[in-house]
Amino acid sequence: MDIHESHESSADLRTSLAARESEVAGLKEQLDIRFREIAVLTRELEKQGAALDRMRQEAELQRLQLEKVVTSTTWRMTGPLRRLIDLLRSRRG
User: DSSP for 5-46?
Assistant: First the structure.
């Protein structure tokens, strides 16, 4: 290999290296974008998880309140009256 060929080969390597460095820079930029997207989605997921926890707590409180009503003395005592009203409504309708 003579000096001229060596110079061309060296120039080709520099060109190839520059292309690879540009490609790496582009990939790093895409990676940064994806990391930012992941961060946004993670925050949204945390918000949705907290909202779901609040809804579950509210549902449990409502279930407990309903249980108190259904097991109360008043509810049991008025049971026959409710059944009679239901019977009368069904005959009318």
Answer: HHHHHHHHHHHHHHHHHHHHHHHHHHHHHHHHHHHHHHHHHH
Q: Are 69 and 75 in contact (CB under 8 A)?
A: yes
Task: Tell me the chain's radius of gyration from C-alpha atoms.
Answer: 37
Range of the domain at 60: 3-92
* CA distance from start to end of the chain: 105
Per the prediction, the chain carries an average pLDDT of: 93
pLDDT at 9: 87
Q: What is the mean pLDDT of residues 78-93?
A: 93
Overall domain count for the chain = 1
Distance CA 86, CA 80 (A): 10
